[in-house]
Amino acid sequence: MTENESNSEGLMERQTTGEDRVRMVARQLSDPQTANWIASEAGWSHEPTKRVLERLVDDGILHRDESGTHTTYYPDYRRQAMQEAMRLRDSGHTVEELTDRLADMKTQIRDWEDEFGVESPNQLRGTLADESLDGDEEDRRREIAREWEHLQRRIQIVGFAIREWDFLAPTTEPAEASS
């Protein structure tokens, strides 16, 4: 960890409450996680973390899954996608700039498909079984697989923002209810 990362973590802990940190961690989840994991990431104890998570579930911000051996929490991915699409719409970028960004992401994925002769991040992970790969190449492929999955999610959100560009425009007048 660099000195800047250490200072930034210390700054986060000094300027936020435990509840704030739990909320920040919970909203950034990309995979379901346990209350213990979230508490650890937030640097706060288990019981108060669990109370905050339950409030977030009650508020519809998180979902709780009790089907496995441990209860996990995950954000409402639809809500996250809609909020991100609105942020993209409000960011000052034009629809053309977002279209260019979308094309760049798709090109990157096609380049990986061509380079490795695979069609998905998991197929790329499957190439790690090749005994001729050295450790650096294995690490590179793992990182590319993670980035590939990230780009797939971004493509969906950016594509949605482009398709719904007019709908996502900020309004200055309250919507009128039809009678």
Describe the structure.
Pfam families: DUF7342. The protein has 179 residues and is mainly α. The protein folds into 2 domains: 18-75, Arc Repressor Mutant, subunit A (Orthogonal Bundle); 79-164. Helix content is 64%, strand content 6%. It is built from 8 helices and 3 strands, in the order H-H-E-H-H-E-E-H-H-H-H. The longest helix is centred in the last third of the chain and has 29 residues, at 135-163. The N and C termini lie far apart (60 Å). The model is unreliable at 1-8 (pLDDT under 50).
Describe what is shown at a glance:
The protein has 179 residues and is mostly helical. It is 64% helix and 6% strand.
User: How would the global form be characterised?
Assistant: flat
Q: What is the terminal-to-terminal distance?
A: 60 Å
Summed up, the helix count is 8
Total E-strand runs: 3
Q: Give the domain tally.
A: 2
Rg from alpha-carbon coordinates: 20 Å
Helical amount: 55-70%
Topology:
Blueprint: H1 3-15, H2 18-27, E1 33-34, H3 35-42, H4 46-58, E2 62-65, E3 72-75, H5 77-90, H6 95-116, H7 121-126, H8 135-163
Antiparallel strand pairs: 1-3, 2-3
Main features:
single chain, 179 residues, mainly alpha, Arc Repressor Mutant, subunit A, 2 domains, three-stranded antiparallel beta sheet, 8 helices, DUF7342
